[in-house]
From TrEMBL:
This is Uncharacterized protein. Residues 1-21 form the signal peptide. It comes from Alistipes communis. It comes from the Bacteria. Keywords: Signal.
């Protein structure tokens, strides 16, 4: 036998046994060949594991033929909703399947189990359809709409919306349902006696069940915020009949849209605003505001501008986005707005922002500045203006123009209210205000347009009614054409009203006649009850207020002073519109007539046969006299009081 060299023998000893198994002919010389491990999932012949829509922890059992000692199987998923694998125990793997709160009604994932040396095994994890399906039909920056259904039309359920952060703070579906039941019980007991138990309340909510009409519509939500739409089966006894079902939804964030907002054809009072957004299928607001209004009224806050514009839109259409095309200030795609009534020589901002179906802003505000042209002065007339007499709410104004033929207009403004405006801007704003009426002022015939030297009474000649005691005022005088265009520079004079002075004036309420007439606004021909009466003051140059109050209402006040304070408070700043001068207002109108009142000062209609006071007191920015009043009884209803329907004898 040949000798084997030492290095060759050493190499053979280090060769793996597997290699050694093929070297000999004799079975006793060959070692038993090694076997490949075989991985099998127990009790899973179909290769599918079904999990509940509410989520659960899953245990998967496996076995390995010819296992390698000390080795464990490992597992992984291709979807994030399968997670938290525990593979530390041989023969068993556990993992968590999350609740199905996403968009899918049903969903599946693949879990792959691997073992060293063995062929991997894939198992499908299928999550069942939710007991109550939730289909999200619309999401905006501030609203969510959804339709909820079940396969069983007899399955009753309740649903609502909750902010995800609020839900997460509760901790679990079980605790959330406990809170829901507690809230339902509180609603039942806080129903002002309508319900005496939770069962009665649930019977009210669920008795007229319509499986086709379960729709959620929530608005005024927070932008870019996660919410859960949730639902749960419940019967009229308060028994929960399904697991809690949730659907995660996030309100939209603001869009980034370039509106390419421009302004063209600026004139003294007109301009054309144009928008050409790079997103053609979003509605947007197209409007404007003066720079002064933006800085003073809106405090330079874009959100206040947006809220103001949306408020005006919602007054017409509410939150119904389908009506946005009917709004005059709303556009889609390339659009323009012809603007009239602007003030000359004034800075403005053109405005644009996107609007979604919830009638909420879906973009930031875009502003483009522009300025109108100044008025071209065509008349060099100058005015001398002075205030001759002034009291707490009235003044006489002397005007002397340098040209007797120049037509001019005068007005009075609280100095503090126009402190940031030039005299020219105040005058131009007054013209724009007068032109805003329907129909607009006819400047060729308006009695407030004068020529020559004049002494003008603030109320009788100028129609200025809101003048307050102890307040600084500025008088503005300027030329105006028959077309309503300012023709001269603006002259001014300043003054200050006095404090209210008590008056010795007495007031006689006389010739009271109760009556009734057919109410023109009553379809059934009901009666309107009224008092006709006169008021005679002892002084014809001071104002008085007059009205009607039910006797029982008057008696609730501590004294006449408290009553008059309430009258003034309810009338507000427009009280001077209901103040008079002279007998039956002879000091302010050319043809005075008796007063006729069909409602109390509070607005309540006069009732037949009730006892009332007809009252009057002096008013010059505050009550100046005692209260004068007379008793009066309203007319008594005659007959049936109007049309009496004849109902069918059998129904």
């Amino acid at each position: 036998m040949k000798k084997i060299k030492f290095f060759a023998l050493w190499a053979l000893l280090l060769t793996p046994p597997l290699l050694l198994s093929g070297c000999g002919d004799d079975a006793t010389d060959d070692p038993t060949p090694g076997k490949t491990p075989v991985l099998t999932i127990k009790d899973n012949a179909l290769g599918v594991i079904n999990v509940e829509a509410a989520g659960q922890t899953v245990t998967l059992n496996y076995e390995v033929a010819d296992a390698v000692e000390g080795k464990l199987a490992v597992a992984k998923s291709d979807k994030e909703w399968i997670h938290d694998f525990d593979c530390e125990t041989f023969g068993q793997i556990t993992f968590v399947a999350d609740e199905n709160v996403g968009e899918e009604l049903t969903r599946s994932a693949t879990v792959t189990i691997s073992y060293p040396g063995a062929e991997s095994v894939a198992v499908e994890v299928a999550q069942n359809e939710r007991a109550i399906s939730i289909e999200v039909t619309e999401v905006t920056v501030a609203s969510i709409k959804a339709k909820l259904e079940t396969d069983d039309p007899a399955q009753t359920f309740l649903f609502n919306l909750v902010k995800k952060s609020d839900y997460d703070a509760i901790g679990s579906p079980e605790k959330f349902l406990e809170e829901e039941l507690k809230a339902l019980e509180e609603e039942a007991l806080d129903s002002d006696g309508w319900f005496t138990s939770l069962e009665e309340y649930l019977d009210f909510l669920l008795s007229d069940w319509n499986p086709e009409g379960q729709n959620l519509n929530r608005d005024e939500l927070e932008i870019n915020t996660e919410y859960y739409i949730y639902a749960y089966g419940i019967d009229v006894k308060g028994e929960i009949t399904t697991p809690l079902v949730r659907r995660l939804v996030k309100t939209n964030d603001l869009k980034e849209i370039n509106f390419n907002l421009t302004v063209e054809d600026e004139g003294q009072t007109t301009a054309t605003l144009k928008g050409n957004p790079d997103e053609k299928f979003t509605y947007y607001y197209l409007g404007y505001t003066s720079k002064t209004e933006y800085e003073d009224s809106f405090k330079g806050d874009d959100q206040q501008v947006i809220d103001n514009a949306l408020g005006s839109i919602r007054m017409g259409i509410g939150n119904d986005g389908s009506k946005l095309p009917d709004v005059a200030s709303v556009r889609m795609g390339e659009g323009s707005l012809e603007v009239e009534g602007l003030l000359p020589d004034t800075e403005y901002y053109a405005l644009a922002f996107g609007i979604d179906n919830s009638v909420s802003a879906c973009t930031k505000l875009t502003k483009t500045p522009f300025k109108t042209d100044a008025v071209a002065i065509t008349d060099d007339c100058k005015f001398e203006v002075s205030v001759l007499d002034v009291n707490s709410i009235l003044m006489n104004i002397a005007v002397k123009p340098s040209k007797a033929t120049t037509r001019y207009f005068a007005t009075v403004k609280a100095t503090d209210e126009v402190k940031n405006m030039t005299p020219a801007q105040v005058a131009d704003a007054e013209i724009a205000f007068q032109n805003g009426f329907t129909p607009p002022v006819d400047w060729s015939t308006d009695p407030r347009v004068f020529t020559g030297d004049q002494t003008l009474h603030s109320r009788r000649n100028l129609g200025v009614t809101i003048i307050k005691p102890e307040t600084d005022y500025t008088v503005y005088v300027f030329g105006v054409s028959a077309e309503g265009v300012r023709t001269t520079e603006v002259a001014t004079a300043t003054t200050r009203t006095t404090a209210v002075v008590p008056s010795s004036m007495t007031l006689e309420v006389k010739d009271v006649k109760p009556g009734s007439e057919t109410d023109p606004n009553d379809f059934f021909g009901g009666k309107l009850y009224y008092f006709q009466y006169g008021v005679k003051p002892s002084i014809d140059t001071e104002y008085y207020y007059t009205g009607i109050v039910k006797k029982s209402t008057y008696e609730t006040f501590a004294d006449d002073e408290a009553f008059m304070k309430d009258v003034v408070g309810q009338a507000g700043e427009l009280i001077m519109m209901n103040c008079f001068m002279g007998e039956n207002n002879a000091g302010l109108v050319s043809t005075p007539t008796p007063f006729k009142g069909s409602a109390e000062y509070s607005g309540t209609a006069i009732a037949a046969g009730e006892q009332y006071y007809i009252f009057a007191f002096g008013y010059m920015g505050a009550p100046t006299t005692a209260l004068f009043k007379v008793d009066a009884t309203a007319a008594v209803a005659g007959g049936s009081g109007g049309w009496e329907p004849e109902w069918p004898s059998e129904w």
